[in-house]
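Quick one, T. Sequence first:
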Amino acid sequence: MITARDMTPAELAALLHFHAEAGVEWLVEDDPVNRIAEFAEQRAARNVRAPAAAALAASEGAQPSTARTRPSAPPPPKTASPSALPAIPDEHAITEARFAAESARSLSELGTAVAAFAGCNLKTSARSTIFASGEPANRIMVIGPMPSADDDREGVAFSGRAGLLLDRMLAAIGLARETVLISTVIPWRPPGDRAPSVPEAAICRPFIERQIELAEPKAVLLFGNFTARFFFGETGTIHALRGEWRDIACGNHAVPAIATLHPQELLTAPASKALAWRDLKAFADRLAEG
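Structure tokens:
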């Protein structure tokens, strides 16, 4: 077996990168530890000590004691670790998220509120909080699902290979990353890139809806299965939900949105690029109509 001391710094860095991509969150010891045998030994030791301690206590109790008993000192207060703190119930977290989102009067204030929010458990395992970036003045918005491992490392939505493909897709219809507002439905990467749970999505909903409400886009481009289902309220695949304009409600007004395949899906299934191109053309045509 190859050990860490047998590897070069470059090989170690590549191995750590591989583990991060695979969603590994914790490191363990190099050598396995038999916790069951360890527990059995500790229990056997306690069983041996218990009779001896009982006999000693009985002998001391039979003799009159002339010494005054010193009161034992109170135990020090326990300090709860962050992981031991009680979780906020989902319904309360949703209420707090809604209040924080509605209190923000600008995207800047909303970004600060999202970064300070601690009611979603996804934040505890994520490195970065992903929030809208780009130019809101052009009133063009692009929304993805949840941050990827690349996004979490870089702190920006649509990073890595998927981000490069997104840049080329936008360039094909005369747009650039810097000229649109890009965000994700979920601000924090779920562990192992799993799908967010229903309560997690409900907690994050007020923040993304408030982003759209404050940005006031004239059209929104949605990427991926999760994003389309989240806003359209349906359970179909992206192939069933893409290419059709629908209104999504944000605040007191509705915004036209169209869904298409996520760049990561196009990397794994290049044959679907023709479908994505049709959706991009429809999006560009809608923008041209004003």
